[in-house]
Amino acid sequence: MSFILAIDQGTTSSRSIIFNENLKIIGSAQEEFTQHFPQSGWVEHNPQDLLETTIGTCKSALNSSSIDPKKVAAIGITNQRETTLVWDKNTGEPVYNAIVWQDRRTASHCEELRKKGYEKKVTDTTGLLLDPYFSATKLAWILDNVEGVRSRAEEGHLLFGTVDSYLIWHLTGRQSHVTDATNAARTMLYDIRSGAWSTEMCDMLNIPIKMLPEVCDCAADFGLTSPEIFGVSIPIKGVAGDQHAATLGQACFEPGMMKSTYGTGCFALLNTGNTMVTSQNRMLTTIGYQLDGKITYALEGSIFIAGAVVQWLRDGLKILSKASQSGDLAKLSDNSQNLILVPAFTGLGAPYWNADCRGAVYGLTRNSGPAEFSRAALESVGFQTRDLLEAMMSDWQTGAKGGVLRVDGGMSASNWTMQFLSNILDAPVDRPETLETTAMGAAWLAGMRVGLYPEQSEFAKSWSLEKRFKPGMDDELREQRYKDWKSAVAATLEVRT
């Protein structure tokens, strides 16, 4: 029997999951690592933590499952996106900590570029917004602010990469400096039309293009692990950024298929096929995945607060002892109360992109209590998801409307929340049997590449539904409730704190 080892390197922890020949999980390990906040708005990781926890969880998963590394047919990697690393190509030593995707230190640099008129060119070339979220300005900051780094980079001594590149370079004994198309597409340095690094973007930020990794398909030959790590060389055959891997794990292979991942926030991706759709609603145009040299595009939208609103109920308001209680409490609410919570705790994400507004509650009465707050909190996730999907469908006007939404992530386990989501979208919501869709996507890429797992069409057939939620809300009520939500958001956006 052969196995696939999937590495899921995330923002707060590294996980390794072992899949068998039937794509079933047979073992896993997870390890958290320290987050570093040197200044307000700065977020960093120690690169050594990323590497050590990755290798450590791989070994732990193998040991706990009693799997001989010789039986691992391939490794698949999925990773936190946009996080930026620079290291010495000879010693492997990083020149600075990893600057995490959440980091906002380059906001002023982005504003300068915006004033110079670069924003349209950035969006046309990369599909992204001119924002500190992405890797490019983080890389420029390291080059400009760490002593001696720019000259070393220009001399060809330094390498840049997102987390996947950094891990692969070390796992292969410093042999492979590569990435995949989905991670490249999140750097703000990649031309997603031509499928190549953009000299214009590099020139705009004064970045030596020689630092950048080779870009491969999501399923490709990324190199062999050094035998010193696992006692045997294991081929790395699949790589994709986390949201793209989840899209693959959900088998969203056809144009019009959508997935939404509910963690702390929410990321929704809509497959637009071979059409690169330029958003008029501040959605991101990105590479969904790339296989056999063919790019499949996607529209992506994110909301900042999804599962975090339940954490607020538990830790802030203290009306829950466990997050899982939120749905049961919502069931007890008074339906005659129209309480609306706009959870702009850290501003609003897509399609509003307003970092300055803050959360608000509307429709409070003397009888509003924990049950009503719980319902409003869970409903806010549904309302925000509809915001995203309506914006996407408005952008992709040729696409079919009213499709099925596939969901994953911790919050998707809440039946009450998923039912409201279906109600407010007026669309079916499908929850798969396996909620570990991100790791599954990485595993499928690697396993498909080595012939262990089926191609797209057969894999799509194997996707297994756990539960379908069907809309059951009156049309008039649905539209009135969404109108109330939009009014609440508009009022919230008018207030500055």
What does the model show?
With 497 residues, the protein is α/β, with parallel strands linked by helices. The protein has helices at residues 47-65, 107-115, 119-126, 135-145, 149-154, 163-171, 181-184, 199-205, 227-230, 242-249, 307-316, 326-331, 370-395, 415-425, 437-449, 456-462, 475-493, and strands at 3-9, 13-19, 25-32, 44-45, 72-79, 85-88, 98-99, 158-161, 178-180, 190-191, 196-197, 214-216, 236-241, 258-262, 266-273, 284-291, 294-303, 340-342, 360-362, 405-408, 429-432, 465-469. Helix 1 crosses helix 6. The termini are far apart.
Distance between the termini: 60 Å
- Domain count, please report it: 2
Over all CA atoms, what is the radius of gyration?
22 Å
Contiguous uncertain segments of 5+ residues: none
Could you describe the largest sheet, including whether it forms a barrel? 7 strands, mixed
Assigned CATH class of the largest domain = Alpha Beta
Task: Describe, in short, the structure shown.
This protein has 497 residues and is α/β, with parallel strands linked by helices. 36% of the residues lie in helices and 22% in strands.
